[in-house]
UniProtKB/TrEMBL annotation:
This is Vacuolar sorting protein 9 domain. InterPro entries: THA8-like, TPR-like_helical_dom_sf. Coiled coil: none annotated. GO terms for biological process: chloroplast organization; Group II intron splicing. It comes from Tripterygium wilfordii (Thunder God vine).
Length: 244
């Protein structure tokens, strides 16, 4: 499908009138039914974001992936997704995450990891973990964390780790928190006060004393014996543990 054809198709799909209907004529009952059914069907779908976020090719890839039957997924990945530019591949992944389509997002991410241009980003992992955990895909969260631990040659983004720890603590995934904490330290990451506050206060609130002592010990080595900064009240640093 050419870009021009795709544009016409998208415009036609957005039109409230069926193809062939002319202004000034009165639609029959069947036409009215088709219009109503089309509007009702769109209520259950999240609209694709076009423009600067998604190109026409990326939109087509998302739509093809969502419509594909299980036996057609590999073909769609090969002929629709893997031919995209780097920025479009990442855009497709983020669009699937925005729509909470975790199974397809995982498939797409696994293909992205195979690309020569791929470089690990903790912030992207944190984004995926958050979406997956919010939708109850906890086995996939463990898989993502195992992928992160197997990555090589990437920077320990403190902001990315901060977001990752918040999500894991929110769902009380203590084991994964400590695994990712060890990874961050092994990469040479030096937590700031904000990150230590998230970890220590979060672990303490769950009664995880041993893990909390490990983090406290590192914090004391970095900032001295006094950890008064843990008592500072900042709304953006609070960890909500509302999920069991």
């Amino acid at each position: 499908m050419t870009t021009t054809t795709a544009t016409k198709w998208l415009l036609a799909a957005q039109s409230p009138f069926p193809c062939g209907w002319r202004a000034g004529t009165k639609p029959d009952n069947r036409t009215t039914m088709r219009i109503r059914m089309a509007r009702d069907n769109t209520k259950s779908r999240m609209p694709l974001q076009r423009g600067r976020i998604l190109s026409i090719e990326a939109i087509q890839a998302v739509q093809s992936l969502k419509r594909a039957k299980p036996q057609e997924i590999n073909q769609v990945l090969n002929f629709k997704f893997l031919r995209l530019l780097k920025r479009d591949m990442v855009a497709v992944l983020r669009e699937l995450l925005r729509q909470n389509n975790c199974p397809l997002a995982l498939m797409v991410f696994e293909e992205i990891r195979k690309e020569l241009w791929y470089r690990p980003q903790v912030s992207l992992y944190a984004e995926m973990v958050t979406v997956f955990a919010n939708n109850g895909f906890f086995e996939e969260v463990e898989l993502l964390c195992s992928y992160l631990n197997s990555e090589r040659d990437f920077l320990p983004e403190l902001e990315g780790f901060n977001a990752l720890f918040r999500s894991l603590l929110r769902f009380k995934l203590v084991g994964l928190v400590m695994e990712c904490y060890k990874l961050m330290r092994s990469l040479g990451g030096e937590p700031d006060r904000s990150l230590y506050r998230v970890l220590i206060n979060g672990l303490e609130s769950m009664g995880e004393r041993w893990q909390c002592c490990i983090v406290r010990w590192d914090a004391q080595k970095d900032f001295g014996e006094s950890l008064e900064f843990l008592e500072e009240e900042e709304e953006e640093e609070e960890v909500t543990l509302s999920h069991s």
